[in-house]
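Hey,
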Amino acid sequence: MSFKIKENITWVGKIDWELRKFHGEEYSTHRGSSYNSYLVQDEKTALIDTVWGKFSKEFVQNLEKKISLDKIDIVIANHAESDHSGALPELMSHIPDVPIYCTKNGVNSLKGHYHQDWNFQVVKTGDKLSLGSKDLIFIEAQMLHWPDSMMSYLTKDNILFSNDAFGQHIASELMYNDLVDQAELFQEAIKYYANILTPFSSLVDKKIKEVLALKVAVDMICPSHGVIWRKNPLQIAEKYLQWAGNYAENQITIAYDSMWDGTRRMAEAIAQGITQEDQAVNVKLFNIARSDKNDLITEIFKSKAVLIGSPTINKGILSAVAAILEEMKGLKFMNKKAAAFGCYGWSGESIKIISDKLEESGFRLLNDGIREKWNPDNQAMDNCIFFGKDIALNLND
């Protein structure tokens, strides 16, 4: 499959309808994805990014249907991660001397992946590469989301090839932002940001403002995953600026795991207390062990407060709770509040363990948490309702 974006620009990527896990088993892709590669034909022909290695032979065969490979003058590697660069070994076996333009860190990463000494040409922010009537201008985007990342801007056509920035994991034959389901599009866009780019929010904010300050026309944003932004393309940049700015909706997420339903019942009673006190706040409950972790992380990203619950087991916490706390630590959420809860039978360490982990991860603790012994009785449930009311009352302090 290929299709023209503009008269001289062709999408030559791969739509992956079957993909359900990404980054190994780390990221769920319920709606599949795409690996977007772009062929720009002017006096010189440039190929911008490739596809995941498992599709490399298919990619090269399809590319040959569009252009003789020896007519490709330039390869642009905006990012060395293998979902974008994976087809390079197959491609470069046919055109070994064609220069590959990338950042200095890109050279290190590509060599580390493929152990090839291709004809690397290092570029930095502001460098221009003439294709004839148009130029490609390079913009380094370090840590968005790898050290080697960059974007490429095509003059006259006013297209920003943004690589991982502004992408989403969506498989679609429609391929443009104005054609796909808008709810699905923005669900996947915020999930992508929450799970991948959150730790780099300060850099995201700085880089987008830097690009916008150039005051260049942007008629289209072409990311490396998902749909192309052609209708009001800068709307996704505006969303990124919102998401990068300590983003929170009027939401509280309660996430827990439970052995014999005691901690689950506590979670539901706490939620009841919150909504009794504040009917406007959106309270969502998730059993961590039975929920998709990336969807849960997205809900945590959207929340102004997060309550984490686990019973005590072997003087510790349940493994699903430990895992999500580790995810939360790595994502470096900012300006969010939290508290712990759980039931216990013997020693009851889980509350302190969760509280310490939350505080270590940058969450501001609302209180010391609440724990109830054995299977919580009516008094314990009342305590949890009161705990929820107290959370709602003090959340905005």
